[in-house]
Amino acid sequence: MKHAVYAPIFNDYGDPARLVELAVAAEDAGYDGFFIWDHLAFEPAGRLDLVDAIVVLGAIAQATERIRLGAMITPLARRRPWKFAREMVTLDHLSRGRVNIGVGLGEPAEVEFAAFGEDPAARTRAARLDEGLQIADQLMRGQEVNHSGTYYQVSGAQFAPRSQQQPRIPVWVAASLPARAGLRRATQWDGVIPVQMPADFVEQPDSSIDWSQWWLDCASFTSMVAYARGRGVAADFDYVASGRLGERGGETPAEFQQCGATWWFDWAHEAPGSFAASLAAVQRGPAR
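Now predict its structure.
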């Protein structure tokens, strides 16, 4: 199982230089990956300092040599698929083939979509994600795209260069359980990042959310893996498990590996004043 640091892009992390510093520390400490959130805003009225994920990843790609990197999770419904494809191929070449793509519907919808006049309905976001991802995938492969869909029209478009990674840049898809739609979508691609959607989740959250409520326990994770395998995913399909950086209580990464996890994400604390503690925890290295 591989280990990664997973960092927010606001509060103490709303400074690109700090995120680069944390990524370099993760590589030096023996982590296999460094992934960051992807949001335009996270609270109503955009009250948090927040950085652009793709710009920061370009800097991280230049500052590191080994670790895999990417944005987890990009709400593709708010992106033009062709612009996203161009960005990902550029990042893939800049990093010499170390990028993973993460996509999902995007939350909180009222802040990420409705505040900018876009349709926040989950069904619309899902349809735009599916359609946009097919277009982006073909463009990243260097294929000619002719597409007439509900949301996007493309005529004779073809990008060069194609991605360095072949047959494509790995695509991981977020799945909010217990609903199965996201998990079914993920099985069509290269990996799944599962979360357990709390029943009382409010779509205008603030930075006081206890994200540990969103992580699956081993029993739920095992069930999710069995479901994906039952749908015929490839042997190298990735399953991402999560826990809090620097905390070793509860079920361990080794236990999740036994449950089928191929990646473990150490989530950095997102609360104000947490960067120094996160940096120290990263420097201690992953719990292998």
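The domain at 2-283 is CATH 3.20.20.30 (TIM Barrel).
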